[in-house]
From TrEMBL:
SUPFAM superfamilies: P-loop containing nucleoside triphosphate hydrolases (SSF52540). Belongs to the ParA family. This is Chromosome partitioning protein ParA. Transmembrane segments: none annotated. It comes from the Bacteria. May play a role in septum formation. Residues 13-25 have a biased composition (Low complexity). Residues 56-235 form the AAA domain.
Length: 318
């Protein structure tokens, strides 16, 4: 018999052991993550979030690629949905990464996608799919066809208004959608303009890295143009700092600079760089489903809560 010292190997609780307060393993990192996960996944476990008075339509834009647009769109959406809200993600990037992360097979033949929606060949109701990841989480998927849309749209009537006209109020009401996130491609072309015309709010993810603000000036000028000519109500409502690496001084400097620039539009929650977050889409999952107790999941849940509470505070003022 080997003596079992309870203080040894506390990092490895028995597989599947439930975290029970006061029990030997309850304060290990794994047990704490499991505890958080069970709270997240218990309906009503961590409280429902307030529903906005009107559907909030948010364009997730930044013409720089790889800054976390798609990751932020799908994980904020999942963070809101897991707390009882109903959320639609419109995948407006031909890469279809948002569709993938939401577990939707967008390579299948004959699926009604955002491409057909923009061309007016299908209705929103025909293009909308519920994500298998999460109840209350919906997606209009993108297929590679969308790559040609940027050019095909040019010759269509009301080419900047195609998405706005397609996002019918009746269907959003029928599905009781509280939030719509439009995941933009990394460009400022006609697809992104369509997203900006369809939305009221712009959410800009900014990566805590070198040249973080590069191109943001151009993005803001484009938003102003859309505001002036196509959609008066459009405004930048939210900035999310992504891929923060606490070990680098640079990340803090970037975060500080962004806060100086954008003030309280910047969410207090910063999304850390985390391998789990980057792994999740490979399994067709959001981080909330893939590893609900992880730091990445907690940060997106916190960001989602902030977004909803800010919206509720504005509703109360209106
Ligand atoms: N918080 C994070 N931690 C680690 N990797 C991340 C994080 N956010 C995004 N990534 C990864 O960085 C890459 C770019 O992110 P993505 O959301 O696709 O950016 P965009 O849509 O702006 O091009 C992807 O491989 C993604 O998995
Ligand atoms: Mg993307």
């Amino acid at each position: 018999m080997v003596d079992q010292d309870p203080n040894v190997s506390r990092e490895t609780p028995a597989a599947g052991a439930p975290p029970v307060a006061g029990e030997p393993y309850a304060d290990t990192p794994i047990a704490m993550a499991a505890e958080r996960a069970s709270q997240v996944l218990t309906p009503g476990g961590a409280g429902q979030l307030p529903r906005p008075q009107h559907t909030r339509i948010m364009t997730v834009a930044n013409q720089k690629g790889g800054v976390g647009k798609t990751t932020t769109a799908v994980n904020l959406a999942a963070g809101l949905a897991v707390r009882g809200l109903r959320v639609l993600v419109v995948d407006l990037d031909p890469q279809g990464n948002a569709s993938t992360a939401l577990g939707i097979d967008h390579r299948a033949e004959d699926i009604a996608s955002v491409y057909e929606l923009l061309l007016g060949e299908v209705t929103l109701k025909e293009a909308i799919q519920e994500s298998p990841s999460q109840q209350g989480l919906f997606c209009v998927p993108a297929t590679l066809d969308l790559a040609g849309a940027e050019i095909e749209l040019v010759s269509l009537v009301a080419r900047e208004n195609r998405l706005r006209n397609a996002l019918s109020d009746e269907v959003l009401a029928e599905y009781q959608i509280d939030y719509v996130f439009i995941d933009c491609p990394p460009s400022l072309g006609l697809l992104t303009v369509n997203a900006m015309v369809a939305a009221r709010e712009v959410l800009i993810p900014i990566q805590c890295e070198y040249y973080a603000l590069e191109g943001v000036g151009q993005l803001l000028r484009n938003i102003e143009l859309v505001q002036a000519h196509l959609n008066r109500g459009l405004h930048v409502s939210t900035i999310v700092l992504t891929m923060y690496d606490g070990r680098t001084k640079l990340a803090d400097q970037v975060a500080e600079e962004v806060r100086r620039h954008f003030g309280d539009k910047v969410l207090g929650t910063i999304i850390p760089r985390s391998v789990k977050v980057s792994e999740a889409p490979g399994y067709g999952m959001t981080i909330i489903e893939y590893d609900p107790g992880s730091r990445g999941a907690m940060s997106y849940l916190d960001a989602a809560r902030e977004l909803a509470l800010r919206g509720a505070a504005e509703d109360a003022q209106a």
